């Protein structure tokens, strides 16, 4: 299964022994969402997104994404802009997974 086809829900999150606060926040706002919806969500913190994405994204996508993030860190002066650019970069790799 390609990463972009994974559905994110409480059952999936529970496999990774999440903190109760992160799981409760997810369940408060969502039942079942796509990876793209997760990445673009304003209701889930950056830290919670990264925590989960590190566990469900195909490992072969994370290496080029890490390199892309290194470059993005130098381009942005705003932490929020950098966070958003990092997540959009990961989404690009996910959507173009072979």
Structure notes:
- There is one protein chain.
- Helix 5 packs antiparallel against helix 6.
- The chain has six helices and two strands.
- It is 67% helix and 6% strand.
- It starts with 6 loop residues before the first strand and ends with a helix.
- The protein has 98 residues and is mainly alpha-helical.
- It has one domain.
Low-pLDDT residue intervals, each spanning 5 or more residues: none
Number of domains: 1
Major sheet: 2 strands, antiparallel
**What is the general shape?**
globular
Pattern of helices and strands: EHHEHHHH
Query: What percentage of the residues does DSSP assign to strands (E)?
Result: 5-15%
Distance between the termini: 11 Å
Portion in helices: 55-70%
Order of strands in the sheet with the most strands?
1-2
- Category from helices, strands and their pairing: mainly alpha
Average predicted confidence as pLDDT: 85
What gyration radius follows from the Cα positions, in whole Å?
Answer: 13 Å
Q: How many helical elements?
A: 6
Total strand count, please? Answer: 2
Kindly summarize this structure in a few lines.
The protein is mainly alpha-helical and 98 residues long.
Please specify the SSE layout and strand pairing.
Blueprint: E1 7-9, H1 10-14, H2 20-29, E2 32-34, H3 35-40, H4 46-56, H5 59-75, H6 79-95
Antiparallel strand pairs: 1-2
């Amino acid at each position: 299964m390609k990463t972009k086809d994974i559905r994110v829900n409480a059952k999936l999150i529970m496999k990774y022994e999440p903190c109760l606060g992160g799981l409760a926040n997810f369940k408060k706002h969502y039942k079942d969402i796509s990876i793209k919806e997760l990445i673009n969500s304003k209701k889930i913190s950056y830290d919670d997104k990264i925590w989960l994405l590190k566990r469900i994204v195909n490992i072969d996508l994370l290496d080029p994404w890490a390199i892309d993030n290194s470059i993005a860190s130098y381009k942005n002066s705003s932490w929020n802009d950098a966070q958003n650019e990092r997540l959009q970069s990961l989404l690009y790799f996910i959507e173009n997974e072979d």
